[in-house]
Amino acid sequence: MNTRQDTVSPVQADAALGQIAVALPGATAVFRRLKLDYCCGGQISLRQAAANKGLNLDDLVAELAALQRSDAQPAAQDAGTLIDHILTRYHEVHRVQLPELVAMARRVEAVHRDHPAVPAGLAALLAHMEEELLSHMAKEEQVLFPMLKAGGNPFVVHPIGMMRAEHVDHGLALDRLAELTRDLTPPEDACTTWRALYAGINQLRDDLINHIHLENNVLFPMFDTAATTCGPTACACGG
């Protein structure tokens, strides 16, 4: 299973905007909100860009640093602690990730529509994934997770089974993402936005795989006696 490192590195004020946009998924949303040109003007440093716009550099660095997230699991393995971790580390993050990825995909498809490697249909796929994930997470937050936090009951295996089935669908969507993007490999002449888009999708893929793993292999087996190990044909974890 491919995962990012549990350690994070500090945001460098002298790094170029374009470099940060590609290396730090989510930074593009910050740059767009602040009208910092990370694509065509991405060669200037974060420090210089902040000075040009009259922005507080420390505040900007802190906002970008907050985008760096660890994959470390909580030390306590009780259901309540694990659910709270899933909600904050994955549910909240997916809700931020996907709208930005959809917006970037639409831009790349429009600007580079004549490029032979353009990922035609990528924005539509990401929008569909967002819709499906929002529905899935709402079911967990409103129905399943409260049941699990209350200790579960003999009938909880049924919503757990439904969530596992939907995890399979999420895995198939990740496979389709890989197909559309040549396994997240931008062409050599890709612009910064295109590269940042694929870096962001890579983060989404890693996050979703880890999210599914925690639920299928750690949380759900606490409540169903017939839990099976997640295999490559059963979900997106690939392990």
From TrEMBL:
Record carries keyword Metal-binding: yes
Gene3D superfamilies: nmb1532 protein domain like
Keywords, alphabetical: Cytoplasm, Iron, Metal-binding
Pfam families, per the entry: Hemerythrin, ScdA_N
The organism's place on the tree of life at top rank: Bacteria
Any one GO CC term of the record: cytoplasm
Name of the molecule in the record: Regulator of cell morphogenesis and NO signaling
Annotated ranges, domain Hemerythrin-like: 83-222
